[in-house]
Structure formats: structure tokens, C-alpha cells
Amino acid sequence: MDPSSQAKEIPGKTGWFSFNGTGIRSVALNLGTCDPYFNLDVVTALAVQGDGKLALAGAASDDAIIAQPMLGRLKVDGSFDTSFHGTGLFSVGTSWPGHGGMWPAGIAERPDTRELVVAMSYRVSSAAGSPTRQLLTQWSSNGNTLRASRSFEFTAHASQIPEAIPQGLLVDSDSAMMVGSRRWDASDWSNRDHDITLVRTLVDMDFLFSDGFE
Fold first, then answer.
1. How many domains does the structure of the chain reveal?
2. Which stretches of the chain drop beneath a pLDDT of 50?
3. Range of 32's domain?
């Protein structure tokens, strides 16, 4: 057998192995309900947990091509961790909290509780011109319980539909910070105006409190 194809233990990490011994592994998601030859499942955020497992966040699309957020967790060898929501991967659905179009931009593990915080965007409704808001959610460590969620809307120019998209997430033991952007005015293509957005919340087991830093 080619030694390069065997799993190799990572020095100093007992029981941790590289993917397939080569550092490369493909993982089939197959959550979306689109035609099986046209599944639109993507991972948009990844975090290494304290135990070496990989927390995933992304989107799965249905036949109407509406993105619905999905969360998952992989073992250190790249296989699904079935202790997470029973199968290692699940879709949140399109009806919560808005009309879908929900794209996670960041996922992180809280170091004290091992719960997962996810930053994403979502459309408020299916109506034309519906605003896009930023959303923070906190999930139990096994993925079975939504502990808390809070949305954030940033205003725009009077002629512009509000659109705020998260870009990244930082989490520590008692707070979460989400960085993103909002489109202030795009009516003039020669002078498109986008601003940085910052959200900071204080967190506990079941709540996401704003501390006034927005």
C-alpha cells in the first residue's frame, strides 16, 4: 500500500488524523431538494472547534432556488459527526426567520459552553424590494436547540432598499462581534456608497444582548 494514502497522526495530537492521509477529502452534502444532478449545497463558513472537530455553516437550495441555511459538524477525519443533530448535518429551513435567501458568513464555537454562534444574512420577505438584514444565532453544542437569535437592520438612503450583509464573526466567552457592510446608496453607479457595519453583543446560554455598540 502506498504510505501516502494512509492516515497519519498529527504530531502532538493523539487521535487526530489528516484527511485520507493526504489532507484532501470530498464530502457529499445532498441536503437541497433541487434536481439531484443540480444540488446547490455550499459551505460558506468553517471553524475548528476546541476538540479538533470542524463546524460547518452554509446553504442548501430547494427547487425554487431559495437558499436555506444549514449547519453541520465533521469529525477530525472529515466524516460526519452523528452526535451533531443525529446525522452531522441539517437544514434550518426557509421559513425562519424570514423568506430564505439566508447565507451564513461566519461560525464560531464559544470556548466556555461549546455552543455555536452563526452570523448570516436573510431577506425579510419574498416581496420585491424586501430589505436584507444581518442575523446572529446561537445553537446548542449538539445542534438540536436554537438558544437565541437576534436580527440587525441598518438604514439606507431614502432612495435605497436597506441591504446589510455580514462578512465575518469573532466570538469569546461572553460576547460576539459581527463585521459586515451595508449599501447606503447605489442609485448612482459612478458613486456607489457602501459602509462597514459592526455589531457587538453580550451572550449567555439563552440570549444575545446588545451592549449598545452597533
1. 1
2. 1-7, 212-214
3. 3-210
